[in-house]
Every structure is written in C-alpha cells, then in structure tokens.
Amino acid sequence: MAELDELDEKILKTMAKGVGVGARPTELAKELSKSRSTINLRVETLEEKGVITGYIPEVDSEKLGYGMVGFMGIICPEEVTGKLLRVLKEDGSVSDIWEITTGTFDLLAKCRFRNHREIKDLRRCILGVDGVKDVDIYLLGACYKEE
Length: 147
Description:
Layout: H1 6-16, H2 25-32, H3 36-48, E1 68-75, H4 78-90, E2 94-99, E3 107-113, H5 116-127, E4 134-139
Antiparallel strand pairs: 1-3, 1-4, 2-3
C-alpha cells in the first residue's frame, strides 16, 4: 500500500474534481499554491507508485443524446454470471459492471438511455437470460458532491 502525505492527498482530491488533470498541471499548482515543478514531480511519483493509473475524460451523456443515466441491480446465481456479463457487455447502454459482494444484488450495471423504451428493452433482455431472478432499475437525478 502506497503511503501518502498531506500534499499527495490534496493533489488526488483536487484532481478528482477535474482540476489539473492531464495536461493542466499549472492549474493544479495554482489551486494548491505550489510550484509547477513540485506538482509535476508529485504526480509522476503517484503514477510510478500506481496510485494514479490513468486519466479518463468525463463524458456528458446528455450531449450524446442519453438523457437518462442510472443503475440496474441484478439478482442471479453465480453460474449465470458469465452469460449475463456477455449480454451486458454487448449492449451499448451499459458502461460499467460490478460484482456485488454484499446486499441484495449480485451485479450492478451503470447504464445510460435515450428513452424509456431502451430501459424496457434492456430489462427484458436481462430477464431473458436463463437463471436471472430479478432486475431493479434506479434512474439518477441531481448529484450532490463534496466540493
């Protein structure tokens, strides 16, 4: 496990807000009142330690025509998981899939939809996989993040 000091933690927290990510270290240095060379060195070290593993763009799903974003909780036995994962990965609505280790669901899938028909179609497709017991859909509203 990598040991982080206070500055490393501030860097990660600030980058998580989208400040200074990728080719914008000057913005990060300014936000943290540190020199750009100090920030560059710290970020490089965090990358070398494997704490920072990549930079992923934040995509505005609405601008792509996906006005609804949500999660599907799926209840299914372990022997069905492989087949279900193939079905989910082939569907263009599904962006991420997690195996759940506690709670009601066995899998959780992050999805984005253009309309309610797409939600119904994906739900029907999932329930069509032999062994799937149930699917719960949670559409997301406003997001309240720590600033």
